[in-house]
Amino acid sequence: MPIDVVVGAGLAGLAAANHLQRHGVDVVVCEAGDEVGGRVRTDRVEGFQLDRGFQVLLPAYPELRRQVDPQQLRLRPFTSGVIAMGVDRRRWLTGPRHGRVALAGALDLLRHRPVDVAALATLALRDGLGPVSLARRRTTRSVAEELQHWRLSTRTVDEVLRPFLAGVFLDPLLSTDARVFHLIWRCFLRGGGAVPAEGMSALPLQLAGNLADATIRTAAEACAIDGTRVRLLGGETISARAVVVATDGSTAARLLPEVDPPSWHAVTTFYYAAPRSPLRSTTLLVDGHSDLLLNTVDLSIVAEQYAPPGQSLIAASVPGRADDALEPAVRHRLAQLYGTDTAGWRLLASYPITRALPVMRPGHRLCRAVRLGSGRYVCGDHRDTSSIQGALVSGRRAATAVLTDLGVHARRRG
Ligand SMILES: Cc1cc2nc3c(=O)[nH]c(=O)nc-3n(C[C@H](O)[C@H](O)[C@H](O)COP(=O)(O)OP(=O)(O)OC[C@H]3O[C@@H](n4cnc5c(N)ncnc54)[C@H](O)[C@@H]3O)c2cc1C
C-alpha cells in the first residue's frame, strides 16, 4: 500500500497528517522527539504544569475552530487587556467590564490621552470588525512604524503597547511586519487569549488523538531526504509517494535545499512556585519601565490545574536566551512589579528557547509555497505566520497540495 510520510509531529505535521488521513490517505508521521507537539509541549513537575515557554492560545484563530474541538480543550481565558507597569504606577488597560480598577484605568487614559483612546478605538474597529483582507493589505512597515503612523503617544506606546507586543512577537524592537500585528490583534480583539486547563500540550494531543493508531512514530529522526525517500537516524529508509517536511524552518532547510532557513526570535521563561498569588488577576502584567521582562502572569489563577492546591505558578518571560545567572534580576524585578517579597519563591524551571519564533520582517510573505515539486512538500509556521494559526494552516495547505497532486479528493472519508 503506498503511503505518505510526514516528518515532524508539531502542530503543522499533525494538521497535515489529520487532513491526509481524513481523505483516506495512509500516513506515517516520523517525529524525532519522544512526544508530539514540537514547540507546544507541557511538562508536569511536582504537580505544576509547565508549558515549554509561556504561550497563549487565541480562540479566535480561524484554523483552531476548523481543526480541533475547542470544547475539549477546556480553555481558560485571560482577562482581555494588560496591566502595564509604568514609571509611576500600574496602569490597567482592560475593558471596563473587568471591574472598577479596570474602569478607572480606562477613564484615566481617556482624561489624559484622549487622542490615544480615539486611535485605539479606530484601530480596534478596523481590525476587529473590518474584513481580514484589510489586515493583510500590503505594507512595508514594521510594527513600531505602524504605531507611529497611528499617532499614538510615545508614552502609551512605550508603557503599554511596546511591552505587550514585544511579548507577542518576542521582538522588543517591534521590527515585525505590521500586517502580522493587525492579524494577531484582530484575533485578540475577537476572542482574547486562553490556555487549555490541562496545559498547552492539550492542543497537539487532541490532534494526535484524532489520528489512527500507530500513525506516529516517535524517536524517529529524519536525517536525509532523497527524492521521496526518507532516511532515518539508525539507517532505516521509508519510501513514499509524497513527503511532507513539517519540522522547524531551520531543519527543513537542512533536509530540503529548496527551503530558505529563517532567522529566529528567542525567549526564556522562568517558572516560580509562590505560596500565594501576588496579584489575584487573570490579566497579563507587562513591564513598561524596564527592558528586562516581557511579561508575567499567575497561571494558576487563569487555570487552577497549573499548580497543586495551595500554591501559585508564576510565569515570567524575558527576551532572548537567558541562563540562570539572570534569575536573581528577574526575581528582583518581579518583586517590584507585584509589590511583594519574592525571596521565598522557588524557581521550578527555566526554559531558554533559541528557536522560538521565526522572524517576520516587513515584506514577510504571509503565505509561502508548500509544494516543492516531485512529491516533496513543506509546512510549518515559517511558511505562513509564526504562530499556532500559521503552523495549523500551513499543515492543511500542504496536505491539500498532496491530495490535489495525487488526485485523491474523491476518496474523502467521514
Ligand atoms: C516560547 C514560545 C512561545 C510562543 N508563544 C506563542 C503564542 O503565544 N501564540 C502563538 O500562536 N504561537 C506562539 N508560539 C509559536 C508556536 O508555538 C509555533 O509557531 C508552532 O508551535 C510551530 O509549530 P510547527 O509545527 O510549525 O513547528 P514545531 O513545533 O517546531 O514542530 C516541528 C516538529 O518537527 C520535529 N522534528 C524536527 N526535526 C526533525 C527531524 N529531523 N525528523 C523528525 N522530526 C523532526 C520536532 O521535534 C517537532 O516536533 C510560541 C513559541 C514558543 C517556543
DSSP, total strands: 20
- Sheet-strand content, in percent, reads 15-25%
How much helical structure, as a percent, in the residues? 25-40%
CATH fold call of the domain at 4-41 and 201-263 and 362-411: FAD/NAD(P)-binding domain
Alpha-beta classification: alpha/beta
Rg value: 22 Å
CATH superfamily of the domain at 4-41 and 201-263 and 362-411: FAD/NAD(P)-binding domain
Cα shape: globular
From the coordinates shown, what is the CATH architecture of the domain at 4-41 and 201-263 and 362-411? 3-Layer(bba) Sandwich
Q: Ligands bound here? A: flavin-adenine dinucleotide
Mean pLDDT: 91
Domain Amine oxidase: 11-403
Pfam families: Amino_oxidase
GO molecular function: oxidoreductase activity
Protein name: FAD-dependent oxidoreductase
Throw out a few tags for this protein.
alpha/beta, six-stranded mixed β-sheet, binds flavin-adenine dinucleotide
Describe the structure.
This protein is of the alpha/beta class and 414 residues long. Among the domains are: 4-41 and 201-263 and 362-411, FAD/NAD(P)-binding domain (3-Layer(bba) Sandwich), CATH 3.50.50; 81-193, no CATH class. It has 14 helices and 20 strands. Helix 1 packs parallel to helix 14 (388-406) and helix 5 (114-129) packs across helix 9 (178-191). The longest helix is centred in the last third of the chain and has 19 residues, at 388-406. The structure holds flavin-adenine dinucleotide. Flavin-adenine dinucleotide binds at residues 7-13, 30-33, 38-40, 53, 55-56, 221-222, 246-248, 251, 267, 353, 356-357, 380-381, 386-388, 390-391. Flavin-adenine dinucleotide is lined by residues 7-13, 30-33, 38-40, 53, 55-56, 221-222, 246-248, 251, 267, 353, 356-357, 380-381, 386-388, 390-391.
